């Protein structure tokens, strides 16, 4: 279908999802990569009514290969937030894949400090979810970022 009409990739279906969001949610990495290859118009930035984009869904589901592909296409997706103010990092800490968390922070270390509309950072969400490994990783990334900012300020 994409060969005949590239705009198909940009259409929203009855569930208010694009083909990219559907593929990212379900873990279809090859489909995601194919869609991203055809992307001339910011597919990654397209979001559902709730503001969640393909990266939010892939991060929540722990689909590492898809998270990497989306970040390679547009590293700024890591900063995009949904209507609750949550980034893909907020979504990743709700899951259990620490590699996804690492990939998101590697793409943009400052996202560890971004709060949602209720003032919660990813560390707050990780604390509530009571997942020790995710919490520790978020905590360490937060401390590392704060030290980096402090050192840049001091020198």
TrEMBL record:
UniProt keywords, alphabetically: ANK repeat, Membrane, Repeat, Transmembrane, Transmembrane helix
Q: Which Pfam families does the entry link to?
A: Ank_2
Q: Which Gene3D superfamilies does its entry note?
A: Ankyrin repeat-containing domain
Question: Would the keyword Cell membrane be found if you checked this record's keyword annotation?
Answer: no
Entry's transmembrane regions: 134-153
ANK repeat positions: 15-37, 50-82
Against InterPro entries, the record matches this protein to: Ankyrin_rpt, Ankyrin_rpt-contain_sf
The Gene Ontology CC terms held by the record are: plasma membrane
Domain of life, per the record?
Answer: Eukaryota
PANTHER family per record: ANKYRIN REPEAT-CONTAINING PROTEIN NPR4 (PTHR24186:SF42), PROTEIN PHOSPHATASE 1 REGULATORY SUBUNIT (PTHR24186)
Protein name from the UniProt record:
Uncharacterized protein
Q: Which organism is it from?
A: Triticum turgidum subsp. durum
